[in-house]
Amino acid sequence: MVDLFHASRGCRFDCYPCCSGYLGGREFRPRPLEKVVEELTAIDNNRLYIVDNSLSQDRGWEKQLFIEMIPLKKKWCCHPIDDDDEVLDLAAQAGACLSIRPSSISRISFAAESSVTMTTGLA
Ligand code: SF4
C-alpha cells in the first residue's frame, strides 16, 4: 500500500487532451517546502505516490524538494520529472523508484538508489 501525497497543485502546460489544467488550475502552485516536509514526516508509511500533475514546472523548487526529502528516507513514484542528470540524481537520492520521462512518454526512467538511470520501452 502507498500513501498519496501532494507537493503542489495546478499545471501551467496545456497538453491535448489533458484536463489537469481545467481541474486543478493552469497556474503551478507549489506548496511551501517546510509544510511539505512537515506533512511527509507525519506519514508513517515510507511508500508514497506523489500525485502532482508535474513536478517539473519549476526546476529550482523541484530540486529543493528532492534535497529536503533525502533525510526522510521514503520510497516514492510520481508523474514526470525533469529529464536532467542533476534532477534525476537528486530524485534517486530522495528515494524515487519510478518516473515517466517527460521527454518521451514511451520510456520509463527508473531511478534506483544507486543513482543509475535505466530506460525501458513500453508496449
Ligand atoms: S504537463 Fe501533464 S498535467 Fe500538465 S497539461 Fe501536460 S499532460 Fe497535463
Kindly describe this structure.
Helices cover about 30% and strands about 25% of the residues. The chain has about 120 residues and is α/β, with parallel strands linked by helices. It has one domain: Transcription Regulator spoIIAA. Strand 4, helix 3 and strand 5 form a beta-alpha-beta unit. Helix 3 packs parallel to helix 4. The protein is globular and about 35 Å long. The two termini are about 25 Å apart. The C terminus is likely disordered. The site of iron/sulfur cluster has 9 residues, from helix 1.
Provide the fold topology.
Blueprint: E1 3-5, E2 8-9, H1 20-24, E3 29-30, H2 33-42, E4 47-50, H3 59-69, E5 75-78, H4 85-93, E6 96-100, E7 107-111, E8 117-121
Parallel strand pairs: 1-4, 4-5, 5-6
Antiparallel strand pairs: 2-3, 6-7, 7-8
Helix pairs in contact: 2-3, 3-4
Iron/sulfur cluster is lined by residues 11, 13-15, 18, 20-21, 53-54.
Q: What general form does the structure show?
A: globular
> Which structural category do the helix and sheet elements fall into?
alpha/beta
Widest beta sheet: strand line-up: 1-4-5-6-7-8
What are the low-pLDDT stretches, counting only 5+ consecutive residues below 50?
A: 103-123
Q: Care to count the β-strands?
A: 8
Instruction: Label the CATH architecture.
Output: 2-Layer Sandwich
Distance between the termini: 26 Å
- Average pLDDT for all residues: 82
Strand % is: 15-25%
| Assigned CATH class | Alpha Beta
